[in-house]
Design brief:
It contains four helices and nine strands, in the order βββααβββαβαββ. With 167 residues, it is of the alpha+beta class. It has a nine-stranded mixed sheet with strand order 1-2-3-4-5-6-7-9-8, with helices on both faces.
Length: 167
C-alpha cells in the first residue's frame, strides 16, 4: 500500500480508495433512512449515522477538510466514512474513521486514515492530527499504529494517538 495520494478537485485518491466529501443528498438519505444504490449493503453503519446527524448540525464539516465517504475504487461502493473535526484548535485536529463490517480486515481504515491525516497536515493551520480510541477497541488502535500515528497517552479508558507534521 502506498502512502501517496492524489487529489482530484477535493477528492483524495489512494491506491484502492477514493475519499469523497458527502453530498447534501447523501446526508439527507441517511437522515431519512433511505438507501442509495452506490452504498455497500451494510452502509451506513451506526457510526456513520451518528456522524451524519452531527454533520447536519455542523455544515462546515462538509468542506474539503471535513467528513468524507470511503469509496472502494474497484466497485464504486461507499464502504465507510471518516473525517476531520474542523476547525483545528491550536494547530491540532481530531480524526475519526469507520469501515462497514463487510469490508473490515482489508486495510481500508488504515489506508484512508493515513491519506486524510497526510492531507490535513498540508494546511498551514494544522501541525497535529490526533485520535482518541477506546482501550477496548484493539482493531482501531492497530489502524492508527499502521497509519503512522504515535501513542502519546492514556486517560479515561482511551488511548491517545497523534501524528505531527514533519519540520
Amino acid at each position: 500500500m502506498s502512502r501517496h495520494f492524489s487529489t482530484a478537485d477535493s477528492d483524495l485518491i489512494t491506491d484502492r480508495l477514493m475519499l469523497r466529501s458527502w453530498t447534501a443528498d447523501e446526508v439527507a438519505a441517511v437522515l431519512d433512512g433511505r438507501r442509495l444504490a452506490h452504498w455497500a449493503e451494510d452502509f451506513p453503519a451506526e457510526g456513520d449515522r451518528v456522524i451524519v446527524s452531527l454533520v447536519a448540525e455542523h455544515p462546515g464539516w462538509l468542506t474539503e477538510y471535513g467528513h468524507r465517504q470511503i469509496i472502494e475504487c474497484e466497485t464504486g461502493l461507499v464502504v465507510g466514512s471518516l473525517g476531520l473535526f474542523w476547525p483545528p484548535v491550536d494547530g491540532a485536529l481530531e480524526i475519526g474513521y469507520g469501515v462497514v463490517g463487510s469490508r473490515q480486515g482489508r486495510g481500508y481504515a488504515t489506508e484512508s486514515t493515513s491519506a486524510l491525516a497526510e492531507f490535513a497536515l498540508t494546511t498551514t493551520e494544522v501541525h497535529t492530527v490526533y485520535a482518541n480510541v477506546e482501550l477496548s477497541n484493539p482493531a482501531s488502535i492497530r489502524v492508527l499504529e499502521k497509519a503512522g500515528f504515535q501513542h502519546w497517552g492514556t486517560a479515561d479508558d482511551k488511548a491517545r494517538f497523534r501524528i505531527i507534521a514533519a519540520d
